[in-house]
């Protein structure tokens, strides 16, 4: 029995010696260090010569720190002491460096139960504490960035969307004060309930997929009155350390003023284009009449002037037509009258004028028998627009190719020119309203509406429109129609 006990003691000592965590034992009222393993000596920055010395003499640098007193306290009271995280400033060379340890001080008793010493073991948790601190600092930084951001931001936590943070700008949009913080957002803003926002937030919370809205109308209480505001916003899911979604961040801008200004502009365009249409029609009729009259009484100078007037009137008619189409689109009045027709027949008709007027050669390729069920007049408008653009923007390209293909369940029409092409960074904007690549030059007339209208027409048919272009190598504008 005695033999086993001494063997066990030897084993324990070996374990202590090789432990990566500091373990030491102080004995007697002066806390003499009677044992300190390698790890202890390392963190203390001492060697074995300190063994036998009172704790304070062995480690004079820590005299003002709580440890000597804790050892004394446990020695006198006989009650163990544990701490999850205590700071210790220990010598590294000539300077003290801060560490954090999880400590355990255990009283050691003799056969009669009398305390003769204290064993201290410690685990270095410095890296853990540092990482926690850094996380706290980055969270604080994020918070202050959100609070000072020039756009409205809020974080809505857990599936009840409790307002965790909302900056000034967000409170301004909501028309509330900080009283909403800590409450479910739809409790703080009851008027926002039932307007679809809850479903959008739920969708983001459940799927993790962000949601973006450009001009989303919402009615909110402002100074006691319900007001319609338009918001541009993004909802994105936030995740915890395990990767589980625990909040949604909303970043928003109030675009009400811009939307209202745009609406006013659209209204004006609608009225102006309607007003222009009638006199333009009679002007066109007059020019045609004059053409007929000069045929009866030939007059070279007059004929030239009338031909020029004819070209200008036609250009004007195109522009007014585009404006009228845009206001129709805005009001949702662009309807389709579908019928069966052969695509290539439309191309032949609509490209006659280009062949005649500009000397470009139009080459029709592909499946010339392909039939579609679509609004012939509108499809004609799209193709004329693409061919006109090819002529306008690629004046030196002698050939313009029109290709008709059947791709799966779609008809695809491509208009290819060999002109200057379009810079890659401009391509995503081409189909936006009023967008022109060279908006400063104005050498080529246009309103930046043709592609926007064409795209809307194609989308209304359930098709798609796009462009393949390499700057310097020409462009291929294409659209598809479901068969
Ligand atoms: P508009 O011709 O009235 O400007 P569009 O919507 O038809 O309006 O075209 C938008 C812009 O796209 C044009 O201003 C032009 O810069 C560019 N674009 C269109 N077609 C071509 C083309 N074939 N080659 C180069 N640029 C083009």
Structure overview:
With 483 residues, the chain is α+β, with helices and mostly antiparallel strands. The chain folds into four domains: 15-124, PAS domain (Beta-Lactamase, 2-Layer Sandwich), CATH 3.30.450.20; 138-254, PAS domain (Beta-Lactamase), CATH 3.30.450.20; 260-330; 339-482, 2-Layer Sandwich (Heat Shock Protein 90), CATH 3.30.565.10. The chain has helices at residues 2-18, 38-44, 55-58, 67-77, 126-148, 168-174, 185-188, 197-207, 256-296, 300-330, 343-350, 352-358, 376-393, 450-460; strands at residues 23-27, 32-36, 81-92, 95-109, 115-124, 152-157, 162-166, 211-222, 225-239, 245-254, 339-342, 361-366, 371-374, 399-407, 410-416, 465-469, 475-482. The strands form four sheets. Strands 2-1-5-4-3 form a five-stranded antiparallel beta sheet, with helices on both faces. Strands 7-6-10-9-8 form a five-stranded antiparallel beta sheet, sandwiched between helices. The protein has a five-stranded mixed beta sheet with strand order 12-14-15-17-16. Helix 9 (256-296) packs antiparallel against helix 10 (300-330). The longest helix has 41 residues, at 256-296. The radius of gyration is 41 Å and the shape is elongated. The structure holds adenosine-5'-diphosphate. The site of adenosine-5'-diphosphate has 21 residues, from helix 13 and helix 14.
């Amino acid at each position: 029995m005695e033999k086993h006990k001494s063997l066990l003691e030897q084993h324990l000592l070996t374990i202590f010696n090789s432990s990566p965590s500091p373990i030491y034992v102080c004995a007697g009222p002066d806390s003499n260090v009677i044992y300190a393993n390698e790890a202890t000596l390392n963190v203390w920055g001492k060697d074995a010569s300190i063994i036998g010395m009172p704790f304070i003499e062995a480690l004079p640098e820590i005299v003002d720190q709580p440890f000597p007193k804790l050892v004394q306290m446990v020695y006198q009271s006989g009650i163990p002491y544990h701490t999850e995280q205590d700071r210790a400033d220990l010598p590294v060379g000539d300077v003290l460096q801060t560490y954090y340890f999880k400590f355990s001080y255990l009283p050691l008793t003799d056969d009669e139960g009398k305390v003769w010493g204290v064993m201290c073991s410690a685990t270095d948790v410095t890296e853990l504490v540092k990482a926690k601190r850094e996380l706290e600092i980055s969270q604080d930084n994020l918070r202050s960035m959100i609070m000072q951001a020039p756009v409205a931001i809020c974080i809505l936590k857990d599936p009840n969307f409790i307002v965790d943070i909302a900056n000034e700008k967000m409170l301004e949009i909501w028309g509330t004060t900080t009283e909403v913080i800590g409450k479910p957002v739809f409790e703080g803003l009851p008027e926002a309930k039932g307007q679809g926002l809850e479903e959008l937030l739920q969708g983001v919370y459940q799927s993790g997929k962000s949601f973006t809205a450009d001009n989303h109308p919402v009615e909110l209480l402002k100074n006691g009155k319900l007001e319609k505001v338009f918001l541009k916003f993004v909802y994105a899911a936030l995740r915890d350390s395990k990767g589980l979604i625990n909040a949604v961040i909303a970043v928003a801008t109030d675009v009400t003023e811009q939307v209202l200004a745009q609406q006013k502009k659209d209204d004006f365009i609608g009225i102006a284009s309607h007003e222009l249409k009638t006199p333009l029609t009679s002007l066109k009729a007059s020019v045609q009449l004059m053409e007929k009259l000069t045929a009866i009484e030939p007059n070279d100078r007059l004929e030239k002037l009338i031909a020029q007037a004819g070209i200008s009137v036609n250009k004007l008619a195109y522009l007014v037509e585009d404006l009228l189409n845009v206001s129709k689109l805005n009001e949702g009045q662009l309807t389709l009258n579908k019928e069966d027709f052969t695509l290539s027949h439309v191309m032949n008709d609509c490209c006659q004028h280009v062949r005649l007027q500009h000397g470009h050669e139009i080459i029709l390729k592909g499946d010339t028998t392909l039939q579609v069920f679509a609004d012939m007049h509108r499809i004609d408008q799209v193709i004329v627009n693409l061919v006109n653009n090819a002529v306008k923007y690629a004046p030196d390209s002698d050939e313009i190719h029109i290709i008709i293909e059947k791709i799966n369940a779609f008809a695809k029409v491509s208009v290819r020119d060999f002109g200057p092409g379009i810079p890659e960074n401009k391509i995503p904007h081409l189909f936006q309203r009023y967008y022109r690549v060279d908006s400063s030059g104005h050498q080529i007339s246009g309103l930046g509406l043709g592609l926007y209208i064409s795209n809307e027409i194609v989308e209304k048919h359930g098709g798609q429109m796009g462009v393949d272009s390499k700057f310097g190598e020409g462009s291929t504008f294409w659209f598809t129609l479901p068969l």
